[in-house]
Amino acid sequence: GFGSYYGEHRKITLQNGVNPNLNASVREAYFGALPEIRIPVAGDPSSEGAVVMDSASYDAERNVYVADCDAKAVEFKIVPKDRYSTVKINNEERKVLNLDIAKAGYYTVSYSVASRDGQSESADTVRIEKRFNFDDIVITRWNNTLIVNGNSATNGGYNFNAYKWYKNGVEAGTRQYYSAGSSKSDVLDTEAQYSVNMITVNSDTLSTCPANVALRSMNVKAYPNPVKSGETIYVDADIDSELIDGAVVEIYSITGLKVIGKRLEGKVTPVRLPDGAGIYIIKVSSGDFVRDFKIIVK
């Protein structure tokens, strides 16, 4: 039995049993054909366990778990030292929770661990931050400016009132936008990594994953060129998406007569040319942005 001398178990029968020693260090055992014997004892709850989370790292300074940039879900797990402890996550008895974190923001998970005798319990909550993909919240304009989308109707319902920009981990600005400079020759550094922290009206700090930026040529072209009369050309506009939204393409004859006008449909827009050979002027405009070039129609 528990705490008995070596070999005493041979004297056990189903009828007589043996008195267990409750002070023994061994708490469970198997005796031949006898069923498993368990004796409830007090044990430490969650302080005797660990939080395990995949696809996330712990930020001790902010006391928050930060999910990996490409993570769409995390596995939250409680591993108690005493495997007979009762574990609850979000008030359900379980040890593992698969949490969907598709949307940027903070997620809160509560958990508790109770000792096997039910006499003691500890509980805690953890916060998990899902960062924004940089391009989901930051707009690049004119190849030299980064702007946080502060419109709650299009940014997921967030309201921000303060910002902090970083370039290669070094603070670079505190406005809603970051600019590489006031000159046209001042462009964003494609080799640098940019990120931004955004403070909400509720004083939560949300952040983006660091990212490199890609510059646009800010050019417009059409192909094929030359093209046959009455056929379709494709206008390719490598410009900011905000410019595309309000841009129009117009085609003029060499004498200045407007023969076609339509809105851009995206980065590439098909345009059917009029009948009649000659040289035409294609003009793409959006606000102050204007590009024009010639096309030959055979």
What is the number of strand segments?
25
Termini, distance in Å?
A: 103 Å
Query: Count of DSSP helices?
Result: 2
- Describe the largest sheet: 6 strands, mixed
Class by SSE composition: mainly beta
* H/E element sequence: EEEEEEEEEEEHEEEEEEEEEHEEEEE
Beta-strand percent range: over 45%
Spatial extent as radius of gyration: 34 Å
Strand order of the largest sheet: 4-5-11-10-7-8
Show unreliable segments.
22-48
Question: What is the average per-residue confidence, as pLDDT, rounded to a whole number?
Answer: 85
Q: Give the helix level as a range of percent.
A: under 10%
Describe the oligomeric state of these chains in a short phrase. Answer: single chain
Shape: elongated
What would you say about this model in short?
The protein has helices at 134-137, 241-245, and strands at residues 28-29, 37-38, 49-53, 56-59, 64-67, 73-80, 86-89, 92-93, 96-100, 105-114, 121-130, 138-141, 145-148, 160-167, 170-173, 177-179, 194-200, 205-207, 219-223, 232-238, 248-253, 258-263, 268-272, 278-286, 289-297. It has 298 residues and is mostly beta strands.
Verbal overview:
The chain is mainly beta and 298 residues long. The chain is built from 2 helices and 25 strands. The protein has a 6-stranded mixed sheet with strand order 4-5-11-10-7-8, with no helix packed on it. The chain has a 4-stranded antiparallel sheet with strand order 15-14-17-18, with no helix packed on it. β7 and β8 form a beta hairpin. The longest helix is centred in the C-terminal third of the chain and has 5 residues, at 241-245. It is elongated, with a radius of gyration of 34 Å. The termini are far apart. 20% of the residues are buried. Residues 22-48 have low confidence and may be disordered.
